[in-house]
Amino acid sequence: MKKNTILVIEDDDNIVELISYNLERENYNVESAKNGEIGIKKAKSDLPDLILLDLMLPEIDGLDVCRDLKRDPKTKDIPVIMVTAKGEEADVVTGLEMGADDYIPKPFRPKELVARIRSVLRRSTKSMARTFEMIKIHNISIHSGKREVKVGGKIVDLTYTEFKILTLPAQNAGWVFSRYEIVDAVKGEDYPVTDRSVDVQIVGLRKKLGASGKYIETIRGFGYRMKEES
């Protein structure tokens, strides 16, 4: 069986050594980069199966690295787990909104890190294995394979998270989804994202959809749904 390759973008040699030791014991290949610039280059040339990304990096910080990788078609689908000593929720939410898949705070337990990696890789594998489908509702078309959304035939540029949030209710028009159900569908179960971050994503999504944003209806006190076609 092919070993999964994990790219660790981290400037602390001791942490890199700790991560490498524990992941290699679990039969992963481990590569590393000491700063964001090198990390970006390695990610784009080697295309690892998953990236562990420290937010507090010299020169280019982790959020900028994540933004760059998620904008590049070659690397946008590589799962990213943020590893950070920062406690500010804003940094975590920003990273998740850029498309990061999970985060783990320092100090961490090696077993927890390995469990998070396995979980994210499972979700990624399931996502890639799904049959690519075209969803059409109202004047919105969603191509899951191309990760492309069109409104009235014109492409709308959405972030990874916006795309996932739109796809869920579009696949189940008329069903009401709570904010927690939306978070679970986008990131996996028991994911620590606030209600507020979902609301912010919906506001941005509606703006990008223009007049068609009205089809994403707010169910006060509960969540959101996609209006059924009449």
The share of residues in helices is 40-55%
**Main CATH class of the largest domain:** Alpha Beta
What is the global morphology?
A: elongated
| CATH topology term of the largest domain | Rossmann fold
CATH architecture of the largest domain: 3-Layer(aba) Sandwich
Placed side by side, the strands forming the largest sheet appear as 2-1-3-4-5
Q: Keywords, please?
A:
alpha/beta, 8 helices, 2 domains, 5-stranded parallel sheet, Arc Repressor Mutant, subunit A
Question: Can you describe what's shown?
Answer:
- The longest helix has 20 residues.
- Helix content is about 45%, strand content about 20%.
- The strands form 3 sheets. Strands 2-1-3-4-5 form a 5-stranded parallel sheet, with helices on both faces.
- The chain has about 230 residues and is of the alpha/beta class.
- It is elongated and about 60 Å long.
- The protein has 2 domains: about 120 residues, 3-Layer(aba) Sandwich (Rossmann fold), CATH 3.40.50; about 90 residues, Arc Repressor Mutant, subunit A (Orthogonal Bundle), CATH 1.10.10.10.
- α2 runs parallel beside α3, α3 packs parallel to α4 and α6 crosses α7.
- It is built from 8 helices and 12 strands.
How do you describe this structure in short?
The protein is an alpha/beta fold and 230 residues long. The chain has eight helices and twelve strands. The protein is 43% helix and 21% strand.
